[in-house]
Write a structure and sequence with these properties.
Structural class: alpha/beta
CATH topology of the largest domain: Beta-Lactamase
CATH architecture of the largest domain: 2-Layer Sandwich
Shape: elongated
CATH superfamily of the largest domain: GAF domain
Largest sheet: 6 strands, antiparallel
Bound molecules: adenosine-5'-triphosphate
């Protein structure tokens, strides 16, 4: 290429225009080649000098010193340069408002110094005056902005006695300063996303390495690991396990873990949600029926106990089991046999029972709602599952796990900012892990942002006062809503009061009083959990 000073002085306006276009084309080409702005910016400054005679170009950027105390004076320094020695670059540090460069930073306004020798504010700090040509030298400094705030300065020297018009140089420099701002903003965005992905990977890798991951359980908090080690100790035995814990704490996942950790892992795992089955259907569902046992029983059918033979049966919400069936269950557990509804024959079953409840079974025994002998039988190995509030250190890993899962399921690319994760750690989570999972899924589906911050997250967090525990599985909900026409004479059919027996306000007040605990709220109104849940749904509260 020709030397800058010779070309700069002999071009026609058309030549200059061609040089400008060449500069732009070269810079654009470079941007496409590399994401590292250092290379692009240095080459841009080189071409400014080579093609337009705008010499000793430099990019001064605000010093980003997170360790400096709040309120410390801000400074900026030369980060990219062309035609400056190492020592000159080192000297290029400016306080806010200091000299021409500092002023451009402080005001966000461009500065054009026609003659540096005549400008008292000009510092000649980076390049000493005697290093510059003896003729009149101009200095141009333009702000580099991101989101309308100056983050740096693009500056260069210019020999004043050239034919090229100053305004033409300014027009090109303005475009270049805008481009630099965009490049730096992109670089910051990529760096932030990379940092977040690395942090997320670290948390997920850590979670995967823990033994809980073997059962699909995320978390490594001491209370979770404690529950897990109790589980592993008993999994190889045949003993009944009783999982205690609030709704949504992972009782079903733990029940599956008991099954997977046992020698029965290749045999069936049958889950039964006792709170979702109408009383009249309990016996036939659990123990099966013979042909002709009731109207409509045109064929015999094995119940869930038989289907779980040589595997594991998980009776969720066992506190909801009608009293009459509690004694039948006890017999099956003690003798390993059952008799189908309408049958005579004893059928042998080899089933391991895992039961779960969020109720205080001891209190139910006391109140005569639960058989004491069955309670003792179930209570051989109780495992307490911690609430999410007792294991806040797991919230981050769980949240990231749910974000990943929801992103995959809905083909989205949503991330949580560090302050959003901190907000999740502060939330009380009365609905525990299920509530956390639901909030994250809703957020991933509905947010318009790819990076969700604390403020955006707040829109998705429920108001603290009324937090409803989650609903049972959908199929079983349908069963629960079926009219309760007794199939066989059930000795303990609960009285189904009218669905409008309690107003919305009464239902809501009961929930608030019992901190969202549906069982307690139902009890306080003299309703079963199912009756209560049904009314909630009817009232549109669920
Ligand atoms: N440690 C965990 N890691 C990942 N997901 C979990 C964990 N614990 C629970 N979950 C998820 O949270 C949700 C609720 O868990 P689960 O159904 O096992 O709770 P629960 O205690 O049985 O609730 P309920 O008493 O209401 O039946 C499920 O989607 C489950 O996959």
């Amino acid at each position: 290429m020709p030397s800058p000073s010779s070309t700069a002085r002999s071009h026609s306006p058309t030549d200059w225009h061609a040089q400008e276009l060449l500069l732009m084309r070269e810079v654009m080409r470079l941007i496409g080649r590399s994401l590292a702005p250092g290379l692009v910016l240095r080459e841009m400054l080189h071409l400014m000098s080579e093609l337009l005679g705008l010499n000793r170009g430099r990019i001064v950027l605000v010093d980003d010193a997170p360790s400096s105390p709040a309120g410390a004076p801000r400074t900026a320094s030369i980060q990219h340069a062309y035609g400056l020695t190492q020592a000159e670059v080192q000297r290029g540090r400016y306080a806010w408002g200091e000299g021409i460069t500092g002023r451009v930073l402080a005001t966000g306004q461009p500065a054009i110094v026609q003659d540096i020798d005549a400008e008292p504010l000009f510092l000649a700090r980076a390049v000493a005056r005697h290093q510059l040509p003896p003729e009149t030298v101009a200095f141009i400094a333009l702000p580099i902005e991101v989101n309308n705030a100056p983050i740096g300065v693009l500056a260069c020297h210019r020999i004043r006695s050239r034919q090229r018009h100053l305004n033409d140089d300014l027009a090109v420099l303005r475009v270049l300063a805008t481009l630099v701002g965009q490049l730096l903003q992109l670089e910051a965005l990529v760096a932030e996303q990379t940092r977040q992905l690395q942090a997320r990977n670290a948390v997920l890798a850590n979670a995967l390495n823990t033994k809980s991951a073997r059962y699909g359980l995320i978390g490594s908090s001491p209370p979770l690991l404690q529950a897990l080690s109790e589980l592993e100790r008993v999994s190889q035995t045949q003993a009944t396990v009783l999982l205690l814990g609030q709704s949504g704490t992972g009782k079903e996942l733990f029940a599956r873990a008991v099954h997977l950790a046992s020698g029965r892992r290749d045999r069936p795992f049958i889950k039964v949600n006792c709170s979702a089955i109408p009383d009249a259907l309990f016996e036939s569902e659990l123990f099966g029926y013979e042909k002709g046992a009731f109207t409509g029983a045109s064929t015999a059918r094995a119940g869930w106990f038989e289907q779980a033979d040589s595997g594991t049966i998980f009776l969720d919400e066992i506190g909801e089991l009608p009293l009459a069936l509690q004694s039948k269950l006890l017999r099956t557990l003690q003798e390993g046999t059952l008799v189908r509804l309408g049958g005579q024959r004893e059928v042998k079953v080899n089933v391991r029972l895992v039961a779960a409840t969020h109720r205080d079974l001891a209190a139910d025994v006391e109140a005569g709602r639960f058989r004491q002998d069955l309670y003792y039988r179930l209570h051989v190995i109780p495992i307490h599952l911690p609430s999410l509030a007792e294991r806040r250190e797991d919230i981050r890993a769980l949240a990231l796990h749910f974000v990943s899962r929801a992103n995959q399921a809905h083909q989205r690319n949503v991330n949580l900012s560090p302050d959003a994760l901190a907000r999740l750690e502060e939330h009380p989570w009365p609905g525990n892990i299920r509530e956390l999972g639901n909030v994250i899924e809703r957020l991933v589906l509905l947010t318009n942002d790819t990076l969700v911050t604390r403020g955006e997250l707040d829109r998705f967090l429920p108001a603290a006062a009324v937090v409803l525990p989650p609903a049972p599985a959908p199929v079983q909900q349908i069963q629960a809503e079926m009219p309760s026409t007794p199939i066989a004479a059930a000795p303990l059919v609960r009285d189904y009061a009218s669905a409008q027996s309690h107003s919305v306000q009464v239902l809501q007040a009961a929930l608030v009083e019992h901190h969202g605990n549906q069982s307690r709220a139902a009890q306080s109104l003299g309703l079963t959990l199912r009756q209560f849940a049904y009314r909630l749904r009817k009232a549109g509260l669920k």
